[in-house]
């Protein structure tokens, strides 16, 4: 396998910056070596992989065909994975562009989070510690855009709901704090079964108005499923251990999303952007707390009882609120609003972007979160030096009073299309780390969940 990737890398280096096979057919791609070393109290290799991307484009009168396969070799797991990132047909009419097949659809621009960018499924096997282009997966869809004189209308139909890729049990990115496994046996099951083709179909519509001076405004509507799963908790009762978390099941539900986005250059030299969305359904994790009456149930049964439970006599002994939470999988469904506004400005070779992010729970109660309103900020700095051969970047995401994510990096252009990047990923904060026998809070993807996953990484990539 090493010989294969060595030969592939040599081939990429030997190719020109872009291979034009003829007037219609072109071949491009990249090769990447990536490794990360955890800088916890007991350092170890967190990730190590080789990745090959190809981009094949065939243009014809009135359209094109694009294929983008990817090959990954996980050196830690000694596993080879293949993925067809994109495979679509473009057809261009006088006022309509039509795209059919596997594609990536990006509708949002907020750094570090997904507010209106809700169509492409996600690859969370390394959480957010990867380029956002890699986090978004391809989706099979029909995507059409109509161009008017001062507006655009885009419609998307996704025949079948896609599935988010989750970390496997044992992975450092498994969405449960590592310390929980010392106290509670937990198993993350596979993603929820797919709906039927019609039952799982999703639709979306986006209208963009470009008639204002240097300002674009878009409104959108999405009828589909959540991409970032919540986790339904199934329980087994064992009276030697008061309560055992038996399984964690990713939960996806249909919802409506109504969104608004804008970008304006009217405040030049500043660029102002913003987006917001109202979700008719948003799933929150509810903490598990044993009712006092649960201890009395052990006098009736001689062996553990696993879900699903025939509630009968058992339900009469349980606290009504606990029984209700148990039936819901300890999830609470609430309407939800999230928004972000940011400003960007370039200072010579320096680019600075700052964003403010806020979320608001409609019909809030204390089971959902401590506060009805939560806020966060992000900041990005990017600068080039040495005739643009050296690029420094720093990104920070801070949920006020909660957790944070830091990612500084330095990239050096060794030669045309050959780049080497060193960087650090740092996660931390108090939320999402509490796990006790009888209480599990937020088995979810939060920065604080990965506070033991701080790591330094090296990425070497060659593009052609």
Mean pLDDT: 82
CATH H-tier superfamily: Porin
Number of domains: 1
Strand segment count: 24
CATH topology, by name, is Porin
Radius of gyration: 24 Å
Overall structural class, as computed from helix and strand content, comes to mainly beta
The gross shape turns out to be: globular
Question: What is the percentage of strand-forming residues?
Answer: over 45%
Number of helices: 5
Report on this model:
This protein is mostly beta strands and 464 residues long. It has five helices and 24 strands. Strand 3 and strand 4 (63-74) form a beta hairpin. The protein has an 18-stranded antiparallel barrel. A three-stranded antiparallel β-sheet has the order 12-11-15, with no helix packed on it. It has one domain (2-288, 330-463): Beta Barrel (Porin). It is globular, with a radius of gyration of 24 Å.
Brief overview, please?
The chain is mainly β and 464 residues long.
How do the strands and helices of this protein lay out in sequence?
Blueprint: H1 2-14, E1 19-20, E2 25-38, E3 44-60, E4 63-74, E5 79-92, E6 96-103, H2 132-135, E7 139-147, E8 151-158, E9 202-212, E10 215-225, E11 230-237, E12 244-251, E13 254-264, E14 271-285, H3 294-297, E15 305-306, H4 312-317, H5 320-327, E16 331-347, E17 350-361, E18 373-385, E19 390-399, E20 404-415, E21 418-428, E22 435-436, E23 439-440, E24 455-463
Antiparallel strand pairs: 1-2, 2-3, 2-24, 3-4, 4-5, 5-6, 6-7, 7-8, 8-9, 9-10, 10-13, 11-12, 11-15, 13-14, 14-16, 16-17, 17-18, 18-19, 19-20, 20-21, 21-24, 22-23
């Amino acid at each position: 396998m090493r010989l294969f990737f060595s030969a592939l890398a040599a081939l990429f280096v030997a190719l020109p910056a872009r291979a034009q096979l003829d007037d219609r057919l072109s071949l491009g791609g990249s090769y990447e070596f990536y490794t990360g070393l955890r800088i916890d109290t007991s350092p170890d290799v967190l990730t190590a992989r080789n990745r090959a991307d190809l981009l094949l484009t065939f243009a014809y009168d009135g359209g094109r065909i694009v294929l983008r396969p990817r090959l990954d070799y996980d050196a830690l797991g000694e596993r080879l994975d293949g993925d067809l990132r994109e495979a679509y047909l473009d057809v261009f009419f006088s006022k309509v562009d039509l795209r059919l097949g596997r594609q990536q659809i990006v509708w949002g621009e907020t750094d570090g989070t997904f507010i209106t960018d809700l169509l492409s499924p996600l690859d969370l096997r390394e959480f957010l510690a990867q380029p956002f282009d890699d986090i978004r997966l391809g989706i099979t869809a029909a995507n059409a855009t109509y161009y008017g004189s001062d507006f655009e209308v885009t419609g998307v139909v996704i025949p079948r709901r896609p599935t988010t890729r989750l970390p496997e049990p044992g992975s450092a990115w498994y969405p449960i704090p590592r310390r929980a496994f010392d106290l509670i046996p937990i198993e993350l099951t596979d993603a929820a079964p797919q709906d039927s083709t019609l039952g799982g179909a999703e639709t979306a519509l986006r209208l963009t108005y470009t008639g204002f001076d240097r300002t674009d405004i878009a409104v959108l509507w999405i009828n589909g499923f959540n991409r970032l799963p919540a986790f339904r908790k199934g329980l087994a009762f064992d009276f030697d251990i008061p309560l055992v978390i038996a399984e964690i099941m990713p939960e996806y539900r249909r919802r409506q999303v109504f969104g608004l986005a804008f970008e304006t250059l009217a405040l030049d030299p500043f660029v102002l952007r913003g987006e917001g969305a109202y979700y008719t359904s948003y799933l929150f994790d509810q903490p598990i707390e044993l009712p006092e009456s649960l201890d009395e149930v052990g006098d009736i049964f001689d062996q553990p009882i696993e879900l699903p439970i025939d509630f009968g006599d058992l339900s009469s002994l349980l606290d009504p609120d606990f029984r209700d939470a148990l039936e819901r999988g300890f999830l609470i469904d609430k309407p939800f609003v999230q928004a972000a506004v940011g400003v960007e400005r370039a200072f010579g070779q320096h680019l600075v972007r700052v964003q403010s992010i806020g979320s608001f729970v409609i019909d809030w109660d204390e089971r959902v979160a401590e506060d009805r309103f939560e806020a966060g900020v992000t900041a990005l700095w990017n600068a080039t030096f040495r005739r643009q051969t050296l690029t420094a970047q720093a990104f920070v995401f801070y949920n006020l009073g909660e957790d944070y994510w830091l990612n500084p990096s330095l990239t050096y252009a060794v030669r045309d299309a050959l780049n080497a990047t060193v960087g650090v990923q740092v996660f931390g904060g108090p939320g999402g780390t509490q796990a006790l026998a009888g209480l599990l809070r937020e088995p979810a993807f939060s920065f604080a969940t990965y506070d033991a996953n701080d790591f330094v990484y090296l990425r070497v990539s060659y593009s052609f």
